[in-house]
Q: What sequence folds into this?
């Protein structure tokens, strides 16, 4: 009774015009609810270049947006059947666990604490990020191990600061750290020559580099000193929705490994390779296993291409942000992106 | 007069001397400057220093916005010029996004129409000469908010394409939050103010608790509660629209401040006014509506406008709960396409500041106009 009263009071307090949607409490789990409402609610950033940001036609676009679009393609054969909720980093987990969003695809680092104590499950890793270093090309520094005596610009109170301290002390390198309150100040100080090195996550370094006077005069060193695997996550306790998300991610990787691209997917339908037949739904009923149509793989690749194409389109070397594949290459190309087979 | 002019004394003037023009040094611009800017050595030094400061600031601003600004280009590369100022093609290209956010382009007419109707109603309401205040007030305060919501959100019975509030953004969202906050908080604030001065203990204590609670927490906390904590309290699966959660938070927060401003006005009304109303046999509502509130509200116009301006600027805080308002849209647009150059974020912020200034300055001028118009000589 008291709970009902509380609910009534809260409802009244929020005004009757509020829309109520039903997420996890619905029969058929998240997938059932998603099917019923006809779209996926996807939590994204409020604008991070390459990952989720408005494009020139004012639509959401980016590597992590493409993951949600792939879900839309798999479930509805319509990559546009996705609605986006921009979230800040503080509210993202509450939004996911309260059912406000169905999947969180918002530059979120997969850590043990988050995976175990927040009631969420990470689906996979869309982008292996990590802390890197940017230096001036003119300084001729080729490795982070050559940074002895350099002054390093760091944002205060972040794990970045601790990671850098650990790295330099474990390698017996003496550096002067110059600490600033926020990212803009760090960039300004680096640009003005207050320090020789700018360190933060390498994807952020690549984006910040574009705001320098002459981006081509700066290089990002190869060394990555921390692990920041960024991936989508879903609510814990709905295994079929988790499976669907996870296999959509694996399909993107498998398609790249098998050479199936957006351009050749129609030709590939006639391929003799049983592995290709399976991912495109020519053979087997793998869609049934995750509750979607059997040609789900074809739909995704037709609409968006494979993982490699997504990467190239949004963050790859041909884009402004221009991040080399590096560890994000497939395991067959020296990277660590690896997916179990569809069979 | 004529007698004296006939006087034969030679040294007495027969006509009045023509008025001499004031000395050049005390009239026109020169005179004004002498009295106002250079009246003493100290003032002269201050004037010169101020003039120099203004010159430096304006020259910098002028050079940034016009002098060294770049007006043509198709991408960030065109604005990557050594020492260049604002990058206006970026604003031109991303203008739609800054105004409408993710709202679909084919449906721009809906917010346009909404704000045009809102502006017309507000004009009818705000211009004293135009009669029918009850009708325009009713339309603006009661009918318009609902009509506006259905027109912009669509879906359901309206037959329009549904545009969920996640797609609202930019200046449009800023105006939605600000107008809702200002309009909806006013009646609540007046009621709270009256309630706080009530002699009924229950009413009084409820109002005091409400006001002190909402005034005691920062707006950021309110918005965080609304967006992060509230979904966790609600039964799983029940979600309220994020925008509505923020609107309720902003409205209640502003209402508490408005209440205190209005209470200031109520306290300034002379006790004699209350007694006179009583003596005329008016009941509480008549006395309040006809005698007390009209005088009290007039007194607190500056305070209310001050609140409104501060709320208008505080709407930028909604970006911390992931709503992409004007400032959020400007920020997000720097992550779009090939618009990258050192001058681009600065240009974006400059543009946002300009828009905010235009709105707040308009509000402030209007309040001064209303104050003058309603002035019945209570000011000292």
A:
């Amino acid at each position: 009774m008291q709970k009902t009263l509380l609910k009534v009071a809260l409802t009244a307090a929020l005004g009757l015009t509020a829309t109520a949607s039903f997420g996890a409490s619905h029969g058929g789990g998240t997938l059932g609810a998603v099917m019923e409402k006809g779209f996926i609610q996807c939590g994204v950033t409020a604008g991070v270049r390459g990952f989720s940001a408005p494009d020139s036609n004012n639509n959401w676009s980016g590597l992590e947006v493409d993951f949600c679009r792939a879900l839309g393609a798999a479930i509805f054969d319509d990559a546009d059947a996705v609605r986006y909720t921009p979230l800040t980093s503080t509210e993202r987990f509450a939004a996911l666990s309260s059912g406000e969003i169905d999947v969180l695809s918002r530059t979120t680092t997969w850590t043990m604490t988050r995976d175990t104590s927040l009631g969420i499950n990470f689906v996979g890793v869309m982008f292996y990020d990590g802390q890197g270093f940017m230096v001036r090309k003119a300084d001729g520094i080729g490795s982070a191990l050559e940074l002895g005596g350099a002054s390093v610009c760091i944002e205060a109170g972040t794990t970045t600061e601790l990671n850098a301290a650990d790295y330099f002390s474990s390698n017996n390198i003496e550096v002067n750290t110059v600490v600033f309150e926020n990212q803009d100040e760090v960039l300004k100080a680096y640009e003005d020559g207050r320090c020789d090195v700018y360190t933060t996550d390498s994807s952020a370094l690549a984006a910040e580099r574009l705001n320098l006077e002459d981006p081509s005069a700066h290089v990002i060193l190869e060394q990555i000193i921390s692990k920041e695997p960024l991936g989508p996550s879903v609510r814990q306790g709905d295994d079929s929705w988790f499976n669907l998300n996870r296999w959509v991610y694996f399909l993107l990787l498998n398609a790249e490994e098998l050479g199936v691209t957006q351009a050749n997917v129609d030709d590939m339908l006639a391929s003799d390779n049983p592995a290709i037949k399976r991912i495109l739904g020519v053979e087997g009923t793998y869609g049934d296993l995750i509750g979607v149509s059997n040609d789900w793989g074809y739909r995704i690749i037709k609409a968006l291409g494979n993982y490699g194409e997504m990467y190239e389109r949004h963050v790859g070397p041909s884009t402004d942000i221009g991040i080399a594949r590096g560890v994000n290459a497939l395991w067959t190309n020296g990277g660590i992106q690896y997916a179990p087979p569809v069979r | 007069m004529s007698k004296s002019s006939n006087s034969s004394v030679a040294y007495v003037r027969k006509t009045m001397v023509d008025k001499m023009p004031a000395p050049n040094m005390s009239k026109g611009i020169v005179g004004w400057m002498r009295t106002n800017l250079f009246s003493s050595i100290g003032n002269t030094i201050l004037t010169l220093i101020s003039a120099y400061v203004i010159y430096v600031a304006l020259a910098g601003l002028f050079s940034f916005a016009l002098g060294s600004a770049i007006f043509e280009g198709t991408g960030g590369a065109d604005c990557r010029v050594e020492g260049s100022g604002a990058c206006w093609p970026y604003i031109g290209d991303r203008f739609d996004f800054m105004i409408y956010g993710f709202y679909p382009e084919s449906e721009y007419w809906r917010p346009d129409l909404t704000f045009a109707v809102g502006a017309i109603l507000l004009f009818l309401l705000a211009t004293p000469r135009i009669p029918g205040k009850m009708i325009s007030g009713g339309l603006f305060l009661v009918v318009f908010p609902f009509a506006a919501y259905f027109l912009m959100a669509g879906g359901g019975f309206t037959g329009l394409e549904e545009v969920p509030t996640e797609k609202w953004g930019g200046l449009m969202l800023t105006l939605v939050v600000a107008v809702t906050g200002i309009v909806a908080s006013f009646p609540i604030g007046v009621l709270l103010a009256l309630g706080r001065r009530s002699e009924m203990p229950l009413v009084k204590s409820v109002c005091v608790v409400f006001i002190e609670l909402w005034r005691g927490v920062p707006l950021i906390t309110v918005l965080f509660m609304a967006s992060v904590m509230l979904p966790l309290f609600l039964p799983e699966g029940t979600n309220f629209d994020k925008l509505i959660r923020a609107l309720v938070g902003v409205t209640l927060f502003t209402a508490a401040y408005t209440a205190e401003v209005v209470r200031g006005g109520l306290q300034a009304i002379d006790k004699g006014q209350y007694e006179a109303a009583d003596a005329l046999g008016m009941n509480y509502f008549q006395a309040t509506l006809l005698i007390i509130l009209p005088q009290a509200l007039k007194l607190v116009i500056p305070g209310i406008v001050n609140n409104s301006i501060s709320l208008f600027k505080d709407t930028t805080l909604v970006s911390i709960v992931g709503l992409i308002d004007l400032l959020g849209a400007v920020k997000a647009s720097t992550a779009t396409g090939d618009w990258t150059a050192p001058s681009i974020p600065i240009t974006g912020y400059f543009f946002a500041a300009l828009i905010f200034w235009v709105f707040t300055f308009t509000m402030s001028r209007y309040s001064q106009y209303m104050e003058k118009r309603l002035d019945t000589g209570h000011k000292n």
About this structure: The mean pLDDT of chain A is 89. Residues 27-128+230-330 of chain A form a domain with the D-Maltodextrin-Binding Protein; domain 2 fold (CATH 3.40.190.10). Chain A has two domains: 27-128+230-330, 131-226.
